[in-house]
Structure formats: structure tokens, C-alpha cells
Amino acid sequence: MYLIIGAYLIASAVKSSGLGERIAYWFILRFVKGYRSIIVSVFFLTFILSLIIPHPWPRAFLIMSVMHVLIKNAGICKEDAINIGFSVFAASVPVSLIFLTGDSVINALAVQNSGESLGWGGWFLIMGIPAITTSVITCILFLGIFKPVGQVNLNHQEIRAKLDEMGKLSEKEVRVLVWLLIAVTLWMTDALHGIHIGWVTLVIAVLMSFPVIGGVLTDRSWSQVPVQVLIFITAAMAIGKVGEVTGMNSWIAQTILPSSMPQNIILLAAFIALVSIILHMLLGSVIAVMGVAIPALLSFTQPMGINPLVTSLLVYTAICTHYLLPFQHLNILVGLGEENGGYTQKQTLRLGAPLTLVVFAVILLVELPWWKAIGLI
Fold first, then answer.
1. Is residue 13 part of a domain?
2. N or C: which end of the chain has fewer CB within 10 A?
3. Does residue 218 fall inside a structural domain?
4. For residue 109, what are the domain limits?
């Protein structure tokens, strides 16, 4: 909970100070030339900002605000504009898996559901390569499916003018940058100092509100913390415990799962991914599925001597990469509609269907070999 509160406050600081917008404009000027480079830039910007904004929603909306300027500036047609808007939120799905703080809600919850502890560095060691691979494949798939229909005439002078209007780094931006560097350093070295990243995130956010050394966050910044999300997450986390106490998890395991699990790790991983995706199609919520599927599957895999992190992260990889309809992934749902990303269910289905195959390909061909190489399996 403290990680989520701190993440939203830090995101508010990055946005209100103008630092995030400055980074985006700077990046566009140097690397964006046409439609394809815009899509690639969206994925890369999402990756860069995932280091300093520890939640996918404010990160996506910040990038979307810059894309609105770019779309207007380049005279991009409506269909291509919709594709660009969709790319912003589609990129947030796989890129959020790379760092533990990439999604301060789901990633931390996946570790907690396993019953194990895992720091920032440990997460990156285990999930970094599979998540980066998934992000690259998703980007290539996106470019293959959503081809441009119009011309992109980007006026770099106008973008340069907007960057020039911002002037040099303000004192507020410098303070935010300093605190972000401290936060990232502490996140990356949590295994050394032993302070939980939730406390690090919240304390950094609090220090940003101090006079002299901070002065970035104000009392209004707290309005950026969605209390309804905290309530939802509390309820979703409780589902797993309620399922354990009432016997629901055991019932699901007996009903859906076979009497014995495959002993071959490849078949076992494929089966866990399949069960997770089926539950995801039925329940829709990523958090709810983790709360139900992980405890049920752990009851089978732990007696087999399999690390609980393996089971938990297999479920996590399957459902956090998979979606067909917008409601099946909140990162996609928040960008739906004309006033946000501009896309509809039509776009999500076109990308979501082949992504289902990507889930199995990444798990079986990348994740399992990598985990075996680092000794997790």
C-alpha cells in the first residue's frame, strides 16, 4: 500500500514539474522520424520512464499527452492516430514487467502471493530478460499488424519551440531529478541496505514535499492517489486468503486441475499458463486471477519441490501479458475511448489474439531456459 501511494505521488511530481514532458520532447527530437519510429519510441519511452514513474497509468497518460502534441504537429490521419494512441497503452503491458517498480501494484502482489521475498535486483534478474523479450516481440507484432495508412510530416521546429519554451531545467525539475536518482539507486540496492522498496518510495515522496529540499509535492498532490484503487486492491488481495480459509482454492484445484500434475517442467509450465489464461478469460481481473490461481497451483507444485516463485511468476507472466478485450487488463482499459487513447475493442482484439501465442512462446522458449540458467529451476 505504501509503495502504491508513493508511486502515485512520485508520478505526480514528475508530471507537475515538467521533467517527464521535457524527457519526452528531447527524445522525440532525436529519434522520431516517421510512423515506425514513433511506435518504437513509445515502447522505448515507456521503458525509460518506468525507471522513474513506478506505475503504468500515470506513465502512459504522460506519454499520451506528448503523443497528442506530436499527432497534431505532424498532421497524422485519424486511423494512424488511433494506432499511436493504442501503442502507448499496449506498450505499458509488457514493459511494466521488466522492473519490480514498473508496476508497483501487480508486480509486488505476484511476489507476495508466492510467500517469498524478492528485491528490485532479484526481480530484474528473474523477469528482466523474459519481459524485455516480450516487449520487443509485442513492438514488432504491433508494427506488423497496424501499418501506417497516411504520411507523417513531423515539424521538428515546432517540437523544438515547445522544448525551448520550457527553458533550462527549473529548480523544481532539478530537485525532482535528484530525488529520482536517489530513489532508483535505493531501489536497485535494496538487497544491500534491506529497506523495503515500499518504504523507500513513500519516504522519497514525503521528502519531495519538504520545504527547501523538496517543495515539489503539495497537499493537492494527494488527490493523485486513487483511494478507490487502494480499496480494490485490498479486496482483491483478500480473495486469495478468503479462498484458502473457506476452501474455495482447494475446490478450484480439485475441479479445474487434474489429480496429478505433469512432472516434466515444460508440460507443467504450459499447463499452468493455459489454466491461468482460462481463468483470466472467465474472471477478467488480473489481480483476482492471481489471488485464486496462485494459491491453488501452489498446493500442487510445492510438494513437487518447485520454488513457489516459479509457480507464482508463471501465472503472473501468463495473465499479465494476455488480454483479448480491454476489461481483461486495466492498463488497456484506462486508455480506451476517444478522450484517452482513441482506440476501441477492435484494436485490442487484433493485437490480443496473436499475443496469446506470444505468452506460450515466451514462457516455454525464453522464461524456462533463462530460469534454469540462473538456478531458479
1. no
2. N
3. no
4. 19-165+226-373
Q: Which amino acid is at 121?
A: G
Angle of helix 120-145 relative to helix 171-188, nearest 10 degrees, comes to: 110
Instruction: Give the type of residue at 103.
Output: D
54 occurs within a structural domain: yes
Give the chain's end-to-end CA distance (angstroms, integer).
30
Q: Do the beta carbons of residue 346 and residue 354 sit within 8 Å? A: no
**Confidence band, pLDDT 50/70/90 cuts, at residue 47:** very high
| Structure confidence by residue, pLDDT tens digits, 181-214 | 898 888 888 778 888 878 888 898 889 888 888 8
The pLDDT of residue 240: 63
Crossing angle between the packed helical segments 345-362 and 265-283, to the nearest 10 degrees: 160
- Chain segment 82-124, per-residue pLDDT in tens: 999 999 999 999 999 999 988 877 888 888 888 888 888 899 9
Task: Tell me which residue of 266, 159, 176, 264 sits closest to 217, measured CA to CA.
Answer: 176
For the record, the C-alpha cell of 80 comes out as: 494512424
Query: pTM of whole model > 0.90?
Result: no
What is the domain count for the chain? 1
- What gap in Å lies between CA 362 and CA 314, rounded to an integer? 11
Asked if residue 1 belongs to a domain, the reply is no
Provide the grid cell at 205: 515522496
CA 316/CA 114 separation, integer angstroms: 11
